[in-house]
Specification:
single chain; alpha+beta; four-stranded antiparallel beta sheet; 3 helices; 4 strands; elongated
Length: 104
């Protein structure tokens, strides 16, 4: 399977919408889901931090992940943004074909 989901986090809904809109309009992702209200606990610079974040889940081709990462990093406010590609191993063939057709 040549498709994947890309998990991304941002600090605000506004930043998530900018990044998501960029990825879809450039056909780097067929779709981006935005989930607001995530609570995060993480280590950063030697301290345990607590914060609110927004999740983006982009549907794309594995071949586009490098370009997707570069676009996200160019728009992202974090020094070390979470951007992780997860291969799709199976799914609804009509949906998977839609991802293929809606990305470059």
């Amino acid at each position: 399977m040549s498709l994947c989901l890309v998990y991304i986090t941002t600090p605000t809904i506004e930043e998530a919408e900018i990044i998501g809109g960029n990825l879809v309009s450039r056909k780097i992702a067929a779709c981006v889901n935005i989930v607001d209200g995530m609570k995060s606990i993480y280590n950063w610079e030697g301290k345990v931090e607590h914060g609110n974040e927004v999740i983006l889940i982009a549907k794309t081709k594995i071949a586009l992940v490098g370009e997707l990462i570069e676009n996200v990093k160019a728009l992202h406010s974090y020094d070390c943004p979470a951007i992780v590609a997860i291969p799709i191993i199976d799914g609804s063939e009509s949906f998977l074909n839609w991802i293929r057709n809606e990305t470059k």
